[in-house]
Design goal:
- By secondary structure, this protein is an all-alpha fold.
- The chain contains seven helices and no strands.
- The protein has helices at 8-46, 49-94, 97-115, 121-127, 129-150, 156-185, 192-203.
Length: 206
Amino acid sequence: MINPGISNSSAEKNSITDFELTSKKQIEMLSICLMISGALTVTYSKINESQRYLFDFLVIVFVATFLIYIAIYAYRGFITSIKINRTIDYISRWNHPDYSTMRATIRNVLKELESNKSKTLVGYLKENSEEEQDIVTILNFLEEVSCLIRDEIIDKNTMEKFYRGIIIRVYKQLSRYIESSRDERDNPKLYEHLEWLSTEWKRNGI
């Protein structure tokens, strides 16, 4: 059940592209700085002594403003880099063999229920604790992913390319179990982020 929408190599390619764009931006900024420095040097050489105090003050203000801008730009680049790395990590985790086994559990349980209409998903899982634990692990992981996407802690666009079909499908398949778990634990907010993201992406079309 691996989603073909995007691979790790594609996510890494996006990261490289972002780096190239950042490097290009840095070169452009350096060129602008050199031009401004040259203009300021020429101007300074042509003004008289009484005007140089004001000129020095303006230069200091300009340099301070420029350094603040550089610091903000560098911080934003750092945050973007962290977000991209987190995104790649969450894509890799879904493709890990441990999750592959648990995804197979969902398929097997649903297949079993198709062949035995007298059983319900909730009833079957209550009688098979190991399968239930696999499904709970998957739901907890997807709830974590959904929460991070909702709070924009990881890159939403990239995650949507990979997880959109997964989120919508799993929530649809396990919605009755989720509702039963909410009632059992008296917690209506259980898996609320997963529900929100499934509804959001489904409403926007597949």
